[in-house]
Amino acid sequence: IDKIETVSESIVKANIYERLGKLLSQTNPKEALEYLPKAIANARSHDDTIKEIELIGYLANCCITLGDYFETIECIDTVIERIDDQFELEIAMLKSRKLDALLNIGNCGQIINLIDNEIMPIFEKYIEVKHHKNISIQSLYAAWLKTYLILANALVFQGNNRSFEVLTTLFDLFKKNEFDDQLFICKAKLAL
User: Which of 2, 19, 50, 101 has most Cβ atoms within 10 angstroms of its Cβ?
Assistant: First the structure.
């Protein structure tokens, strides 16, 4: 009976860590950092990869909110390591999620290399298909545009004239697709 109580206590504790970490990630990310690593370790110890990836996502969101960009990048890289290579679009979407963190730490060279070689070729391949079983075309399109904007900013920060070409492409896409997100358009104009 003592063993049963210990196992039950451990399950309850793990459940509390997970729920508190998820709940606090939205309202108090700093406090969530106390619970999420324990929940991730528990998921890892039970070989629950899906739960581990989900919890690492919450941890990454907390880190980006708190300005811990290096930890954000580490979280995303950890998730990418756990995903099978056959999910190339999902991996490209994850890599696009770390671009903001890379921009905030000033790693423009890595951003440009990552976008040109590992993200945009995959995005452009699937934009043409217009159907994917795991990712909606709207999510892909939004990530594609945001990636173009981050590429433009990284090029601007480097003083690279290619930024004008990227921004021209971006504005052509806005016009062609009757894009009306004023905040996004304003961010693109600020890159000029």
Answer: 101
